[in-house]
């Protein structure tokens, strides 16, 4: 059975993939559907959804189009989620690979370094880092990447420790391959399955972290995001509930979709484990 067929057997994963494609479509079409800035005041404030043509989701406290903010915010959330996860993988994978392959004092030193970051709550550390570097998309990406790489390093280390004594690794040593070649050509390709699954879940976590930072006023002041929309509307939730509800649902659906896709990838990449669960 092919990878696509195994993935398609998980209906939850297919549902998540559909939601994810819709959100990606929103992000791509945002500049076309709403070419003007989402910060522009275009109507009277607190316009309810569908009351006026062209304002499907109403307006916010400043008379800005909520639909425009939602679609432009999708681009920001996905971009930050993907880039911060990529940076976290670039940090965590090499450290975990070196620690797991060589072991000994190098493994101990790298794991103590990893544990140092894990002793500090992720959200608290992200707040401190963004506050120090000044709120911007770059600082948010770096902060999320810094708090996200330790689980990657631990996962890769565990996989390398399991695989480094396999027969094909010993055979590679006998034919004269260097340690770097063995790591990159023999072991790392066999660890991609759990890394891919973890990465899909990390994107969801990154989106939640970005939304939380923006909610607290630590988002990029020049970029519209879902977290900012919720934070800006929290003081008027009784008067205009939809201003918090709509971006909140968007965050919920995005995170749910990514988790469902991650579960589907896990089943497709690890068919034996999927059969055991059933």
TrEMBL record:
Its main location: membrane. Gene3D superfamilies: MetI-like (1.10.3720.10). Residues 74-262 form the ABC transmembrane type-1 domain. It is found in: Cell membrane. InterPro entries: BP-dependent_transpt_permease, MetI-like, MetI-like_sf, OppC_N. PROSITE patterns: ABC_TM1. It is a multi-pass membrane protein. Keywords: Cell membrane, Membrane, Transmembrane, Transmembrane helix, Transport. One of its GO terms (cellular component) is plasma membrane. The chain crosses the membrane at residues 12-34, 74-102, 123-147, 195-219, 240-261. GO terms for biological process: transmembrane transport. Belongs to the binding-protein-dependent transport system permease family. This is ABC transporter permease. It comes from Halomonas huangheensis. The lineage of its organism: Bacteria, Pseudomonadati, Pseudomonadota, Gammaproteobacteria, Oceanospirillales.
């Amino acid at each position: 059975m092919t990878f696509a067929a195994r993935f398609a057997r998980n209906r939850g994963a297919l549902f998540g993939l559909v939601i994810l494609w819709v959100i990606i479509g929103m992000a791509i079409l945002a500049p076309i559907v709403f070419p003007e800035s989402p910060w522009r005041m275009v109507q009277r404030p607190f316009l309810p959804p569908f009351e006026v043509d062209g304002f499907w989701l109403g307006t916010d406290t400043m008379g800005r189009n909520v639909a425009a903010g939602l679609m432009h915010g999708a681009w920001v959330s996905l971009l930050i989620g993907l880039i911060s996860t990529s940076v976290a993988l670039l940090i965590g994978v090499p450290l975990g690979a070196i620690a797991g392959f060589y072991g000994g004092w190098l493994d101990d030193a790298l794991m103590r370094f990893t544990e140092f970051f894990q002793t500090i709550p992720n959200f608290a550390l992200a707040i401190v880092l963004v506050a120090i570097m000044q709120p911007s998309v770059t600082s948010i990406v770096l902060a999320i990447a810094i708090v996200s790489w330790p689980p990657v390093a631990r996962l890769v280390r565990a996989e390398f420790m399991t695989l480094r004594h396999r027969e094909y690794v010993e055979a590679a040593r006998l034919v004269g391959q260097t340690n770097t070649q063995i790591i990159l050509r023999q072991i790392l390709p066999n660890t991609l399955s759990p890394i891919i699954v973890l990465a899909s879940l990390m994107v969801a976590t990154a989106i939640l972290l970005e939304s939380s930072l923006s909610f607290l006023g630590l988002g990029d002041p020049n970029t519209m995001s879902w977290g900012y929309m919720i934070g800006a509307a929290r003081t008027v939730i009784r008067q205009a509930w939809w201003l918090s509800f709509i971006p909140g649902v968007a965050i919920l659906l995005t995170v749910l979709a990514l988790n469902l896709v991650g579960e589907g990838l896990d089943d497709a990449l690890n068919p034996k484990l999927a059969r055991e669960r059933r």
